[in-house]
Structures
1.
Amino acid sequence: MTARTLVTGASGQLGTGVIEHLLSSFKMPASALVAGSRDPGKLKDIEARGVETRKADFDDENSLEAAFKGIDRLLIISTDALDGAGTRLRQHKAAVSAAKAAGVTRLFYTSMPNPEDSLITFAPDHLGTEEAIKSSGLDYTIFRNGWYMENLFMALPQALASGQWYSSAGNGKIAHIARDDIARAIAGGLSAPAAENVIHTLTGPVAHTTEEIAALASNATGKPLSVVHLDDAQLAGGMAEAGVPAPFIPTFVSFDANTREGKISMVTGDAATLSGVEPTGLESFLKANSAVLSG
Ligand SMILES: NC(=O)c1ccc[n+]([C@@H]2O[C@H](COP(=O)([O-])OP(=O)(O)OC[C@H]3O[C@@H](n4cnc5c(N)ncnc54)[C@H](OP(=O)(O)O)[C@@H]3O)[C@@H](O)[C@H]2O)c1
């Protein structure tokens, strides 16, 4: 029987991209693929291409073993439950236990860079999930996904509109990577034979400081942009004044603190190795998205 691969979170942005690359870039037969989502009704387009769809909701622990039945390779896409109450780690642990009970042979998981030494508030979710995967005894491939270039859409349009970008990241660097390059790399990893347990850290080709990103964004849009360097407390205060909901502020500030402390400055070639394609550089990404950035 053909080995089957299930992708959870198949209706999300990354899940959609992984499935597209599995089918189009890596020519995985539709019959070898299963798409899982909390709401399979959102997967009609994928189903129409011959891919089986299943309900896979990590909050519905009892249903997961059936959801993963007959699956050899399982990609667990990390969820977006960032309530600070341990929900996400509980969800991921439920998925790992169900995978083991269902007889999955290799687990794949979307983690974050450097979770064992990170200032990001939600790093323990990823570290705890990696530990659960390792303790399960199943073979594993972990993708430590770098920060999406698309994350810049949250801060840059407003910053470009005002000409000022408030940051406590100092001179710390990040090698952002386009979500689609991550999706392609993960699809490459899911398509390739794997004998060993492995951790890939997926980054863009160059790490930039906030000042450098501001200069590239300014160049892409023709709008002036200067970085206003703050400390963490000043940044948190400014966010509160701007109306950012209080529960989100520590997480947003932790992104800058983590960058400032050099904990996400790594650049690897893992994305290109897995996908066979060089990931997009930030300059071209910002130029291609100048209309979105300009608001
Ligand atoms: N590296 C970065 O910069 C970055 C940025 C944002 C997010 N992330 C992480 O990467 C993940 C994928 O990113 P994305 O861009 O695809 O985000 P997204 O479009 O917001 O997708 C959220 C994902 O969470 C899944 N999910 C939520 N609750 C679930 C549950 N109870 N059981 C199973 N799956 C559940 C959704 O699956 P269904 O709706 O199909 O069930 C969907 O795939 C995010 O969930 C987050 O953990 C990383």
Note: Residues 8-15, 37-38, 56-59, 77-81, 91, 110, 145, 147-148, 151, 179 surround NAP (CB under 6 Å).
2.
Amino acid sequence: MLKYVDYDIVFQEIPYEVTLAVNLSNCPYRCKGCHSPHLQENVGKELTESTLSGLLQAYEKAITCICFMGGDADTGELYRLADFVRKSREGTIKTAWYSGNDRLPENSTDYFDFVKTGPFIEAFGGLNKKTSNQRLYRIDNGNITDITHRMR
Ligand code: SF4
């Protein structure tokens, strides 16, 4: 099961997309300097297909992408929900995932148009820093491109 805490429309997390970012809890990572320590707790409401349908109905005219912020605790459910978004919207809304995994998680390229990898390491900084360990990938018809440079 995945739980979400809140959501917001954001403009910088995925380049050139207007993104509905859904903040998922129960993050299994323990990054020092975590921007949202409350997301390490198992809190919030269950994220279901019904919840996603409601969010998409409310915001789909305003957004081009939906980004799952977290979800590493249950990747099977995450992939299932991303697949639901793609199928229910016939690909008109792109899917993205901000993962804390330090490499592209297995099968993630089958369900997302964008995947961010890497835990937050204070000494290296976030995606907008040249020193960052984090990477943002674009996945297009099986082709994987590192587009981290677009975040700077
Ligand atoms: S992956 Fe993100 S939410 Fe999880 S501990 Fe690290 S910074 Fe915090």
Note: The pocket of iron/sulfur cluster is lined by residues 27, 29-31, 34-36, 39-40, 70, 100, 119-120 (CB under 6 Å).
3.
Amino acid sequence: MPEFDPSRYTLTARWVFPVSGPPLQNGVIEIDSGRITAVHNHAPKPGTVNCGNVALLPELVNAHTHLEFSDLQQPVQPALPFTEWIKSLVGVRRGSPATAAVIQQGLAECRAAGTTQIGEIATQDWPSETYQHTGIRTVVFRELIGLSSDRAAVQLEIARQWLSDPGQRDDTVTRGLSPHAPYSVGPDLYRDLVNLAVEQDAPVAVHLAETLAELELLDCGTGEFVDMLQRFNAWDSQIIPRGTRPLDYLQPLASVSRGLVIHGNYLASAEFDWLETHPRITVVYCPRTHAYFQHPPHPWKRLLDRGINVALGTDSRGSNPDLSLWREMQFLAMKFPEVDPNRILAMGTLYGSRALGCDSELGTLEPGKLAQVVCVPLPEAQNGDSYRLLFAGQDPMPLGWPTS
Ligand SMILES: [Zn+2]
């Protein structure tokens, strides 16, 4: 695929998937100064660049990554029980600390797979330069961990400094907070962090309702997390009130500008009701990671049916063989042929952009939006359903225009 300059080209291809509307056979995308001016399937103007037997679609959005693990060659074992996986992951990191080069390796992998925007969790104060000049817009959620109250003040100060760093003003890097999860952040610290994010107009990401063991810990103060936390010397039996539910971690998010509920595998009707009335909160589903941990079916279809935004993520290479959001979508399309495929496409594009606050610029191929387009090489089949052809396509490639 040749390099294109979006200020000078009109593109046509066998199929164009705008996401905001039905696929267009022999579709045309007109571009001026890096923005889309028209999308149609009328006869193309002279000079139009024909991309051939490919599909053109909006660049992809990976709403949940931990790029500090991008050097892992394969997912960490064992997958189960979950707390053993966490212990293994912690062991891997202690043996080989994260570096900026590893994060950049992950960014390059995401970019090569057609991703334009990511929601990244960072355990350290990496400078903004780490994420810049990659062709990707990154929302960096600084991870905070502290179950017992004696760690709370330090974690809150880390969060405060992270958000006040002038680096956050960069166009391609936005700073947010990630109170890690209910089993690793005490309820008071959680509320303080969310309040700080509200004060600073920063987005929040929290791992929530990920395992049954987490629900047991919240409800009863028992189970495998207690054993793990005791081994980490971090358990305090009084810190989480008995009878706590995931809903108790959603309610403080009511005033955040944007919130990401990562996984949400075991959300129940009370949480559905709350999410339905809080459209700034997105649930992020990580399909292949979800399968790796052998959870029962994720409630993503029911969430979407209720009008709740659901985005897709790869999670880290600690639970996924690669960082390709495209392969997450292919996985879903293959596993759920009964689902409207444009919905799957939207989860990896528009809904992800909505989650990360860029849907006015990205996520669909529509006039006025940035011309950030990926091309998916299609099989040679002459006929067939457009979506079936699309999801049988090869890994996407960004069209290679200048990136900031
Ligand atoms: Zn995660």
Note: The pocket of zinc ion is lined by residues 64, 66, 121, 207, 262, 315 (CB under 6 Å).
4.
Amino acid sequence: MEAKRMAGVALPSSSHSPFTIHHSPSFMRQAHLVEPRRIELVTRPVPTPGPGEVVLKIRAALTCGTDLKTYRRGHPKVPFGPFGHECAGDVIAVGQGAHRVREGDSVVPTPTAPCGRCAACRRGRENLCERLFDDMVLGAYADYLLVSAKVASTHLMARPSTLSYIESAFLEPLACVIHAWNRLRPEPVEQVAVVGLGAIGMLHIAMARAAGARVVAVGRRAERLQLALDVGAHAVVDTEREHVGESVRALTGGVGPDVVIECTGNPTIWMEAPRWAATGGRVVLFAGLADGTHVAFDATRLHYDEIDIINAFHFRPQDVEEAHHLLATGGISVQPLITGVRDLDGIADVFASLDRGHGMKYAILPEPAAWV
Ligand SMILES: [Zn+2]
Ligand SMILES: [Zn+2]
């Protein structure tokens, strides 16, 4: 059903903005996650930018698996309050000293930026920056968004002229996915199993395909398995009908994939994944687990078969640059991943529906009438 609905979604196709900016309202709507499973749309003043800050008129924001986790149970890194972090929009005000952009520029921010000075940053591990989550830009489900000076000076990217606001808002999730692929480099990847077919799993499938690998997608529900094939999987394994280990092995010439990418955020799958990889293979644990979760691995399998466990978290500036380039050049197509387009006023209903397992990734538009 999702695939059918998506086919009917009319996405803005050109780089032309349907809006003009000649009024400056003083109030705006902003969605707040007040506590698990309670979103309120509050009215608050449109922010004015301080030194180095930038204010955006939001044109599109995307729902995300991290948002859904936070909605259900809170998140160790994401506080309650202004909600949403994947978006694209137009600059309406620029604070003193914010040199990267000008009023009227069409841009896409990421929610965080590294400090560039701490020990992790100096080692080139900016995704592990001590101050990564300071000044985080949250509140994308809104009419306007204040971008912190830290993000505005590092990760406020021009919206590629080839892409709609909705498509360009994939910058942040794609940067996370590319970070994982950069952790796999420079060793070649020939056969990949992607386990878990949410939006992130689909982006990994598209990346694997772009990297020239053969891809087996592992998940459930007919519409997700079909979408996995549509975005580039060579074969699928239905976890509700098949034995995952046996099917994955059979589909990879009897040896198993050299890389398994875990995208379910399920501790049982974390523990199973090393069994599905080829001997000498690698497992990427991509989807984080709830705070305090412990997992155990088969030590014999890990040691004597040299299965490497790789963790991938968040992104570095170079991952953002690479994601921006890949989107801008059409290296992967993200439009099929949008389940539907919804009005900002319907944000609570959208998350209630995602919580029930309906839909994968919605675009939330403050002014939908002008788009579809
Ligand atoms: Zn996200
Ligand atoms: Zn740092």
Note: The pocket of zinc ion (ligand 1) is lined by residues 64, 66, 85-86, 172-173 (CB under 6 Å).
